[in-house]
Amino acid sequence: MSTQPPRGKPINLPKDPFAYIGFWQFLTFIMLILLVWFNEIRDMPALLFNTEPQEVNIFRGCVLTAAVLVAAIVAIGNTYLQQKRVLNSMISVCSNCNKVRVNDNQWKQMEAYISDNSLLTFTHGLCPDCMAKVMQTIDQRNGARNA
Q1: What is the spatial distance between Cα 117 and Cα 91, in angstroms, rounded to a whole number?
Q2: Domain membership flag for residue 61
Q3: Does residue 85 lie in a domain region?
Q4: Please, which contacts does 77-84 make with residues 24 or more away whose CB atoms are closer than 8 Å?
Q5: Which of 41, 95, 126, 146 has a CA positioned 20 to 30 A from the CA of residue 136?
Q6: What is the domain extent for residue 36?
Q7: How far apart are CA 138 and CA 146, in angstroms?
């Protein structure tokens, strides 16, 4: 069974991938808040380790929830802003060889620059137009050898 989408149908990606990442981070923090309140209500140490049950402490649950929310705001906000900053930066690209300017005196291959400065990795292939040109060149060379 093929895992590739059918030809002709575009892949629907989120309009803002960073909001998508932030959404999943937010869900993680919601799970932490639920864990805090489950612990307060069900007393997990008493359940897991057969210790003396403790009373529900609403104040402790509220303080822990507030701490998780502050951590969520800092983590999600920082991730979102840092990734936006990286993508919104101007990159100077050579119009002839497509190298990227690292500083005034240094240029780097685009693939190497992007791999070094993001989580992206590259693989190479040939599009149908380039494949046709390469095959035409190979056929011409084989024809010249056979003649």
Answers
A1: 12
A2: yes
A3: yes
A4: 79/18, 79/21, 79/22, 79/25, 80/18, 80/19, 80/21, 80/22, 83/18, 83/21, 84/18
A5: 95
A6: 13-89
A7: 12
